[in-house]
Each structure stands twice: as C-alpha cells, then as structure tokens.
Amino acid sequence: MKKIIYGLFFGDSITYGEYDGIFGGWVDILKRYALQKCNEGSANELILFNLGIGGETTDGLVKRMRHEMAARNSPSGNIIFIAYGANDLAVREGNYIVNPEQFRANLQYAVQEAEKYSDAVYLVSILPFSEKVDGIVVSSGKLRNNHTVVEYNKILQETAAEFQISYIDFYSVFLKDKEILLSADGVHPNEKGYGLMAETLIPLIDRYLQ
Q1: Are 138 and 120 in contact (CB under 8 A)?
Q2: Average pLDDT over the chain, rounded to whole?
Q3: Is the CA virtual torsion 155, 124, 9, 206 positive or negative?
Q4: The dihedral of CA 95, 10, 140, 128: what is its sign?
Q5: CA dihedral over 31, 181, 160, 53, signed as positive or negative
Q6: Sheet harboring 136-137: ordered strands across?
Q7: pLDDT at residue 139 tops 90
Q8: Distance of CA 163 to CAs 107, 116, 188, Å?
Q9: Which residues, other chains included, contact 106 with Cβ-Cβ below 8 Å and sequence gap of 6+?
Q10: CA 35 → CA 4, 22, 29, 87, 154, distances in Å?
C-alpha cells in the first residue's frame, strides 16, 4: 500500500532558496524530483514542504516548530530537516545573534520536538562563506567568520550524535569550490550550488520513495 510521507524542511533563506531565480533552491528542486518520481509510479508519495524563512535563527524555530509540526503531520510518517546557523553565528555590535550555548539548547529542543512526530530527523550543516565576506561587516551589519562556521557545525554534529540522528555535511561538499558555488553576496549558494545540494540529497530522497 502506497504511503504518503511528508518531508519538512526548516531553515533560513538558504532553505527558502534565496538568490536562485531559476530553480528556486535545493528544496524546490527536490520537491519537483519527488513529484516526478511519484508520477512515474514510485512506491510511495513524498510531499515536501519548504518551511524556510529568510533571516530566521534557531530562536525563531523554537517559537514556531511545535505549531508547524502539528499542522503538517502525515499518518504514514514524516522526514524532518533542520538547517540553521548562518544567521545564528553572525555577530552584530559585538554579540552573536544566537550564542553557541543557546544555539545548542535550541537545537536540542528542536530535535526533541521533531522526534515526537518522526524517527527520521536530519541536522544540516552550515555552508562555508566566501573569502570576500569572511570577517567583514556587510551592509546588514552582520559579521561572519569561517572559523565560527566550524565551531557551530561542531555543535550540530555533537547534537546529531547525542540524539543518534544523521548529520548532512554540505560544508564539506562546498568547501573546495565555494567561490564558484556561492552567489555574489558570499553567503547564499548560486544556482550551481543549490543544484549540488539537491544532487547530494537525491539518494536519501530515493530511499523514502521506494
């Protein structure tokens, strides 16, 4: 019997797909892929929800996650992706927007909420930044450093290990070629970068379509 599985992608503007005017970002590419596979007769139907909000941090996730999950809960099962950090780790006026300790606590809460609805929860790494914005205050007033990305990704990895869930390492996928995979702002992927993110996850998506 065919299952209808929901995939919920929580995140910020990188999850939303900002700066990709062609494909709409990695989640939207995966949405179209899953729909195509369903139309071709896949064993299960996978409906993906892009719940990314530009500028959001894990503080925002904590406020809305319980309500979002309750509104989108498939009896056949859910897959939940949590992709945050690029805004949390930014420094404004000398302070982290979300400091490392709070980032960890927020992630722990989010995973606990997700596990009420799913046994398939994934934490997604933060991408590296372009050298042209590394350590530079941009027009939004935010300062980001690549060494901080490593620190916050370590928190993501430790949280994944703590809850025995999977960690999706987009950071390593981007690191070598980041200057050609990131958009002009040095933070968001370009169309090629988003395409690579989707391509990386297709084997995982296929697992739930079978």
Answers
A1: no
A2: 97
A3: negative
A4: positive
A5: negative
A6: 95-96, 91-92, 143-144, 136-137
A7: no
A8: 11, 13, 28
A9: 57, 58, 59, 61, 62, 84, 88, 98
A10: 12, 18, 10, 31, 34
* Residues 11-43: tens digit of each pLDDT: 999 999 999 999 999 999 999 999 999 999 999
Q: Is the pLDDT of residue 209 over 90?
A: yes
Is residue 119 classed as helix, strand or coil in its secondary structure? coil
Angle at 26 between CA 20 and CA 30, to 5 degrees: 130
Distance CA 72, CA 85 (A): 24
**Six-digit token string for 52:** 């990314």
Q: Is the full-model pTM beyond 0.85? A: yes
20 and 194 Cβ atoms separated by less than 8 Å: yes
Q: Which residue has the tokens 């992630």?
A: 107
Closest CA to 148 of 160, 135, 157, 159: 135
CA–CA separation, 51 vs 30, rounded Å? Answer: 14
Helix (H, G, I), strand (E, B) or coil at 163: helix
d(CA 175, CA 20): 20
Do residues 55 and 30 lie in contact, with contact meaning Cβ atoms separated by under 8 Å?
Answer: no
| Mean pLDDT computed over 56-60 | 98
Residue with tokens 């179209």: 32
